[in-house]
Amino acid sequence: MTLKSLLEGELAQMGDFIKLLKEEQGALTAGDTEALEALSATKVALVQTLNRSGEARNVVLRSAGLENDRPGVEAWIRGNPKDLAVQQLWNSLKVAVVEARELNLLNGKLIAMRLQHNQQTLSALLSTSATPQSNLYGPDGQPTQLSGRRIIDAA
After folding, report:
1. CB 127 within 8 A of CB 134
2. What would the pLDDT profile of 37-73 be if each residue is shown by its tens digit?
């Protein structure tokens, strides 16, 4: 494998990862938990693939006597200034990595907001006022009786 072909593969995989992060963002915004479950499994597999690709790149770099990751690729580019294809691929990959990082951070913030909202909703439903009779729902998730007679029983 050449450095060029490895970078082409990584760039394509990173494009797939960015697309997946955008889909995840849409599912988070919509509250689509089923889609999130499916995306989560795909995301884990894609991250593993990206990690393997990075390690394959590092093997090529080490075999050329260079360091791993960014320092190694940049040293390779300095040593091969006429190989514009590798330069372009590397620059595109760096841009894609920044985009993926930003999307992932945003998705994390969306998850945190959704969790906070869910916690606030749960706290409201399980309010811990002085009288347990004022709770709408008990710890088991079942409605509590606010009085001896429930409105729903009268229907």
Report:
1. yes
2. 999 999 999 999 999 999 999 999 999 999 999 999 9
Q: From residue 3, how far is each of 15, 42, 106 by CA, in Å?
A: 18, 26, 31
Tell me the torsion sign for CA atoms 38, 44, 45, 49: positive
State both tokens at 125.
Answer: 């439903």
Per-block mean pLDDT, blocks of 10 residues, the chain (155 long): 96 98 95 92 96 97 96 96 97 98 95 86 68 62 61 56
Q: Is the pTM of this model over 0.85?
A: no
Closest CA to 39 of 65, 21, 55, 54: 21
Report residue 116 CA to chain centroid gap: 18
| Torsion sign (Cα): 24, 27, 28, 34 | negative
Can you tell me whether residue 137 is helix, strand or coil?
Answer: strand
